[in-house]
Every structure is written in structure tokens, then in C-alpha cells.
Design brief:
two-stranded parallel ribbon; 116 residues; two-stranded antiparallel sheet; alpha+beta; 7 helices; 53% helix
């Protein structure tokens, strides 16, 4: 709320205990004039206004990184592929190579024999 004095607009005083909170969405979409934006900036610097819920774009710009990089870091890492999943998508040539590398006995003893 702004109060009009003869030459200067001043923001009405708020209680010292609870600073005014503005969201990142408000900062991105407000239609304040330059003077009111400067007051808002001064309030943020002075601690009378706090910012909450910055947008990804705002946070990325503050941290000097790209938005896609932030999105990639926020994404959980993919779960590692299980042996069963790897075998399910293997080609016949890969099956033969595995049997040659590990040995037919090992394949039989560890994978087939327990099922029999």
C-alpha cells in the first residue's frame, strides 16, 4: 500500500517482525513502474521484503547456469539396468559372446541349474 506525501511516494510501514513476501511469479509478471521496482529492490536489500518460490529461470540466472542444465540436475538419475533387463534386450550374437566369455559351464551352473 502506497501513501502519498507532497513529493514522494512511500510504502506504508510494516511490522518489523514479518517482512513482506513476494514470489518469483510476482517478480516476473508485475507491472510496477521503475520507481516502485527500485523501492522493491531496496526493500529486498534492506530485508523488509523477502523472496520466495523463485522460478527456474530466475534461479538459473542468479546462479549463472542455463535452464536446461538446472532441469537435468533436478531430474533423478536413471535406475541402473538389471541383468535380466540387459539379457531381455540382447541379440543372439551378444548371447553367444557372453557364453564364450563367461563359459557355458558358468552360465549353466548359475542360471539354468537352480531352475531345474
Amino acid at each position: 500500500m502506497l501513501t502519498k506525501s507532497p513529493l514522494i511516494y512511500r510504502q506504508a510501514p510494516t511490522s518489523q517482525g514479518n517482512p513482506r513476501q513476494v514470489s518469483g511469479q510476482f517478480l516476473a509478471r508485475n507491472r510496477l513502474n521503475a520507481r516502485d521496482r527500485a523501492r522493491l529492490a531496496a526493500g529486498i536489500i534492506g530485508g523488509q521484503v523477502t523472496i520466495r518460490n523463485l522460478t527456474v529461470r530466475q534461479t538459473a540466472r542468479l546462479c549463472r547456469v542455463s535452464e536446461p542444465y538446472v532441469a537435468a540436475v533436478r531430474r533423478p538419475p536413471p535406475a541402473p539396468e538389471s541383468l535380466a533387463e540387459h539379457f531381455a534386450r540382447a541379440t543372439p550374437a551378444e548371447w553367444l559372446e557372453a557364453a564364450r566369455t563367461v563359459g557355458v559351464t558358468t552360465v549353466w551352473d548359475r542360471m539354468i541349474a537352480p531352475l531345474v
